[in-house]
Amino acid sequence: MKSLKKNQKGFTLIELLVVIGILAVLLAITLIAINPARQFAQANNTKRRSDVNAILNAVNQYMADKKGDLPAGITSAIQSISNTGANICSDIVPLYLAALPTDPKVNDGKSVTDCAAVEGYDTGYTIVKIAENNRITVAVAEANKELGEIISVTR
Questions:
Q1: Which of 15, 21, 90, 138 is the most buried (most CB within 10 A)?
Q2: What kind and span of H or E run contains 17?
């Protein structure tokens, strides 16, 4: 019996499973610790895509109702959608949008529901009329871009 025990070397199945379990837990902790910022940025960009489409849809509905006229404030110069830039809030809220969406980084992401009550709103989005083809482009302002993604819709 003594000679058999001396020749047996290696790890038991239990030892191997414990080590694999510990490694799996460490890997999971590492992935969770590293990726939340990216996950939040991706979620923010998803909201931005939705907001840009909603704003552009509202502007297009306004134009359809007004026989092609643009909301006041939209010009061929790129402007922020704000009370100091392209102030389209009163033209599209609440008839075409329940609330004017804002970028997640601006105003804690709170939408503008009452245009008259808000002193200085800024959505974090830009709007421009392209003179050559009379199309409208709504985009995320340069300062609010995340993950190097350009979010812009033209119709």
A1: 138
A2: helix 13-34
